[in-house]
Design a protein that fits this description.
about 30% strand, 11 helices, binds flavin-adenine dinucleotide, about 400 residues, 8-stranded mixed β-sheet, alpha+beta
């Protein structure tokens, strides 16, 4: 098989890149380890920044997002049993977010891909990349029981944190920056009508909690827990009881309960590899960087990367101009590090750390009081939460 760009991974990064390149007439093949159902049902991110919304619109895949997504103009920070609203739109010059599940974005992108007729190889095994430092790289895999070789001009490593692309770069070519947090998130998806229109981030003495939603009928809730937490020790009753404790307010607001459809534990990590390129291989999304989910940045960063990569590849094929390809890693990393700082900062402000002292608790409270009472403080939360404009 011969193509211009071989894309590894059919998450949001790989699928969107494939679609943006298709619209510019650039041939590409997507290779995915799992089946279609797995890709479409994996519950993960849910907050789309303005730049992500604009990019999906420009790619012609935003129609259902506008119909079914929930536009939000604020979030709430809860501490000392009170909710404090941050007006995202007023504090960010009119920008906003839309709550629309990552798996819904993936469904829309897969449907668009299937319509193009371009190859999307699900359930590919033994995926490997070759000759990345030459001008004729290739990808091999096994698909439908047959060995496949894809010769290409470029490889896009969109295969997430545990993929094979980043490890294929020689160790000496990479610098890794890593931080593992001493806690995780226990997340549930419940068939319960959201009891508030906006997301609520809570700092409680038992630990962080987050109230969010995926639709008018589905609530998504998280609790800070131990990194090695055994999910079997959390009965539904225990989960609801702890959620009520951490999210309780003096004004009587409560989360609505309902049947729990899914539960799981997500470890928390910050990670960046530099550069995001080696020879003809370009990394995008979680394959190059991870953020703790507190700032809702992971999928949005993946979209920002592939937007940049598609523009660079289009400039290469349309006018033989490689300036953007050469600048790809540096350009993306500026945004990545902004998001790394924001996600780390929000995580630090809202979670209980094992080494917390009464002094640190008071400092946290003071910071929360500042960002919810000062316009300058609120602007820092808002401007980063809705996402800084994409550096086109
Ligand atoms: C539980 C959870 C909650 C999250 N919540 C949020 C949130 O609220 N907001 C937010 O912005 N972000 C959140 N994130 C992060 C967000 O989901 C990711 O940043 C996003 O999925 C990145 O997209 P991606 O396409 O780069 O990688 P992925 O979505 O990981 O996609 C990579 C794809 O590559 C495939 N793949 C892997 N290895 C191979 C291989 N060898 N060969 C072929 N294919 C391969 C995988 O199967 C996968 O389909 C969350 C993550 C988790 C785990």
């Amino acid at each position: 098989m011969r193509t211009q760009v071989a894309i590894i991974g059919a998450g949001p990064a790989g699928l969107l890149l494939g679609h943006l390149l298709h619209r510019a007439g650039i041939d590409n093949v997507i290779v995915e380890r799992h089946d279609r159902r797995y890709a479409e049902e994996r519950i993960r991110a849910g907050v789309l920044e303005q730049g992500t919304i604009d990019t999906l619109d420009e790619a012609g895949v935003g129609e259902r997002m506008h119909r079914e997504g929930l536009p939000h103009e604020g979030i709430e920070l809860l501490f000392d049993r009170k909710r404090h609203r941050i007006d995202l739109t007023a504090l960010s010059g009119g920008r906003a977010i839309v709550v629309y599940g990552q798996h819904e974005v993936v469904k829309d992108l897969i449907a668009a891909r299937v319509e193009t007729g371009r190859p999307l190889l699900f359930e590919a095994s033994d995926v490997a990349v070759h000759d990345l430092d030459s001008d004729h790289p290739s990808v091999t895999c096994v698909h439908d029981g047959a060995a496949v070789k894809i010769e290409c001009d470029y490889v896009a490593g969109c295969d997430g944190f545990h993929g094979i692309c980043r490890p294929a770069m020689p160790a000496g070519a990479l610098k890794v920056f890593d931080r593992i947090y001493p806690f995780a998130w226990l997340g549930i998806l419940a068939e319960a009508r959201p009891s508030s229109h906006e997301l609520v981030y809570a700092n409680h003495e038992n630990g962080f909690a987050l109230f969010s939603m995926r639709s008018e009928k589905i609530t998504r809730l998280y609790l800070q827990c131990e990194p090695e937490e055994d999910i079997n020790e959390w009965s539904d009753d225990r989960i609801w009881s702890e959620l009520h404790t951490r999210l309780e307010t003096d004004d009587g607001w409560k989360v609505n309960e309902g049947p729990i459809m899914q539960k799981g534990v997500t470890p928390m990590r910050s990670f960046v590899c530099e550069p995001m390129q080696y020879g003809r291989l370009f990394l995008a999304g979680d394959s190059a960087h991870i953020v703790p989910p507190t700032g809702a940045k992971g999928m949005n960063l993946a979209v920002a990367d592939v937007r940049m990569l598609s523009k660079a590849l289009i400039a290469h094929y349309a006018s033989n101009d490689d300036t953007r390809l050469a600048a790809y890693s540096d350009t993306c990393l500026k945004r990545v590090w902004r998001a790394e700082h924001y996600s780390w900062w929000m995580t630090s402000m809202l979670h209980r750390f094992p080494e917390s002292t009464p002094f640190m608790d008071r400092v946290q409270r003071s910071e929360l009081a500042y960002v919810t009472s000062s316009e300058a403080g609120g602007r820092v939360v808002a401007e980063n939460y809705v996402g800084l404009p994409f550096a086109d």
